[in-house]
Design goal:
This protein has 261 residues and is an alpha/beta fold. The chain contains eleven helices and ten strands. The chain folds into three domains: 2-107, Tetrapyrrole methylase, N-terminal domain (Cobalt-precorrin-4 Transmethylase, domain 1); 113-218, Tetrapyrrole methylase, C-terminal domain (Methyltransferase, Cobalt-precorrin-4 Transmethylase, Domain 2), CATH 3.30.950.10; 226-260, no CATH class.
């Protein structure tokens, strides 16, 4: 039997009775980091005399390709370092393996940062989860434009190293849009900030962040977006000036890109 077990995202008390039982009964545990998982088991007073295997985003394909399906005759558990496996964490490929090989599996409910942040935001309606944005370059800019153009509430994860960059981008593109920033969910220094993007200031960026962005509003929809301006029949210099106002790039950078196109 294979079980996917969510672990606390900060507060140890959030682990469920079912999760504790699954970890206690496990013969084999696949996990992102064996050190993190063993520490969790020690905190829960669970015997660590089990077989532990590290399976993370960099090696999961290799590990899964070598799996013997007979091991699932034992009690096998998969956990990520924190939260729900498969949500911006490994786990989905192991579920696909189980489905393809008719291996019985179960997914336990539990702690999840994106749902916690969504409820805490107070926004109502449908939402889309985008996970982490690309780190930089045109790929990031393209994805961010998709996020802020959505007619649904958008939820992002962001690291402490790039959260200020994200805030700067939101102030540039959607200064009037309501945004909810949250960090260190369920922990001692849990923080909630909700305001228009242009009004938000982050004084301490340490910790993992979840950002909830309200859906497109009328004021946004009345504005020309990047593609709208590209389609206008204007001299390249004029286009570059307009595009630079809704972009993080300079007029010169955009003009050179337009010339190359």
């Amino acid at each position: 039997m294979l079980k996917f077990v969510p672990t606390p995202i900060g507060n140890l008390s959030d682990i469920s009775k079912r999760a504790i039982e699954a970890l206690d009964e496990a013969d084999i545990i696949f996990c992102e980091d064996t050190r993190v998982t063993k520490k969790l088991l020690n905190l829960l007073n669970i015997d660590t005399n089990k077989s532990f295997y590290s399976m993370h985003s960099h090696n999961e394909n290799e590990i899964i390709s070598k799996l013997d399906i007979n091991i699932f005759e034992k009690n096998v558990v998969y956990v990520s370092d924190a939260g729900m496996p498969g949500i911006s964490d490994p786990g989905s490929k192991l579920i696909q393996f189980a489905q393809e090989n008719n291996i019985k599996y179960d997914v336990l409910p539990g702690a999840n940062a994106l749902l916690t942040a969504f409820v805490a935001s107070g926004f109502e309606g449908e939402f889309i989860f985008f996970g982490f944005l690309p780190h930089k370059g045109s790929e990031r800019e393209k994805k961010l434009k998709e996020v802020i153009s959505s007619d649904k509430i958008a939820i992002l994860y962001e690291s402490p190293h790039r959260i200020e960059k994200l805030l700067k981008e939101l102030k540039t593109y959607i200064p009037e849009r309501l945004v909810f920033f949250s960090k260190e969910l369920t922990k001692m220094y849990q923080t909630f900030i909700k305001d228009k993007a242009k009004n938000i200031t982050l004084t301490n960026t340490k910790g993992e962040w979840v950002v909830v962005i309200d859906k497109t509003i009328k004021n946004d929809s009345l504005c020309l977006n990047y593609d709208d301006i590209l389609a206008l029949k204007l001299p390249l210099k004029e286009k570059a000036k307009l595009l630079s106002k809704i972009s993080t790039k300079s007029t010169k950078e955009i003009y050179n890109e337009l010339v190359n196109l």
